[in-house]
Specification:
single chain; 60 residues; mainly alpha
């Protein structure tokens, strides 16, 4: 019976590991979405700074 119990425990551990991997994969996908959003925002800010730097200030 010990071998059956060990096999069941191994299957249970594999299922728990699978669930954890799926959870982590979802978290990574969310992080990826956030990173892309931050990248887009950063590009917009960089563009605004470049445009502002190209404008000449009026001479006083």
């Amino acid at each position: 019976m010990s071998a059956v119990k060990d096999a069941i425990e191994a299957v249970r551990a594999a299922l728990l590991l699978n669930a954890e991997v799926k959870r982590l994969a979802d978290a990574v996908r969310e992080q990826e979405r956030e990173l892309r959003d931050h990248d887009r925002r950063l590009v917009r800010i960089e563009t605004m700074i470049e445009i502002a730097g190209q404008r000449k200030l009026p001479q006083q």
